[in-house]
Amino acid sequence: MTVSLDSDTLFQYRRFTLYNSPYVAHDTGAAIDLYPEAGTAPSPVAGEVIDTRTVDAPPKPYAEAHDHLILVDTGTHVARLLHVEPTVEAGDHIERGDPLGTLVRAGFFAPWVPNHIHLGFRDYDANPYRASGSLRLTVAVNPTPLSWDGTGTVLETGETWARLDSPSHPDPGSTFVGLESDGGVLDGGFPHYERGGLLGDGTRAVFAGTEVGSDSDRTVTWDDVTVEANGEPVRGVALYCARDSFGIKLVGETAGDLEAGQAVSVTVCPDD
To answer: Could you tell me if 165 and 156 are in contact, meaning their C-beta atoms sit under 8 angstroms apart?
Structure first.
């Protein structure tokens, strides 16, 4: 069974990704991470809150020690939401867009990952507390593919990431966009996570002109490659769909060494 998220739900958020995570539900796009405006946590679902639970998160120096799980009965499935310290409780009825609480930067996050809401769905007879078992997700938007020649200028940086000014969103706010791949768009952490996704109409996983993986029913297994910026290896590239702004995001400690205004050429090299 597949669950589809409609465009009205998705347009509440600045960005989304089905595959850009190392955790099990994202391996085949059976969960989605939704990135809202800063300081907000709008619910992507309507229904009755079944339970909220505090869970331990992996210890990370930049993150909270605990995360939170919110379970919502949508009338057709159980929605499973993470990374929000809830202000809702069991028995509350919520509508789509209602505030859920405060976003939490949990130890499940890589250091370059911004705050977001994780969403998955379960059948009623499935255990909603386990990490595995979520249903396959589809999105009722067709992201616009943006072509890219592998070059750009560093627009902004953090300790473990740098975002380039290209490819840029042609009309921010109007539609979701992603990095072009043979007519579709690539999604996921490339190549630092084992798998990614190919959304839309694409049939081959191509990064800036180089074929980089094998596609099977939307899920891509990345080839063994290294991404380099100006000849220096970086951990990889964070790929997602965005409605507000775009630009390739390089991740890893060496990506954080890049400086704003620096010209960058990104290449993909096969591992020996």
So the answer is: no
Measured CA to CA, the distance from residue 175 to residue 192 in angstroms comes to 28
Q: State pTM to two decimals.
A: 0.97
CA nearest neighbour of 200 among 180, 221, 223: 180
Q: Which CATH code, of 1.10.10, 2.70.70, 3.10.20, 2.160.10, is assigned to 2-139?
A: 2.70.70
The domain locations on the chain are: 2-139, 144-270
Residue 7: strand, helix, or coil: helix
Helix then strand count (H, E) for the chain reads 1, 26
For each of the chain's 272 residues, which pLDDT tens digit applies?
A: 899 999 999 999 999 999 999 888 998 999 999 999 999 999 999 999 999 999 999 999 999 999 999 999 999 999 999 999 999 999 999 999 999 999 999 999 999 999 999 999 999 999 999 989 999 999 999 999 999 999 999 999 999 999 999 999 999 999 999 999 999 999 999 999 999 999 998 889 999 999 999 888 899 999 999 999 999 999 999 999 999 999 999 999 999 999 999 999 999 999 97
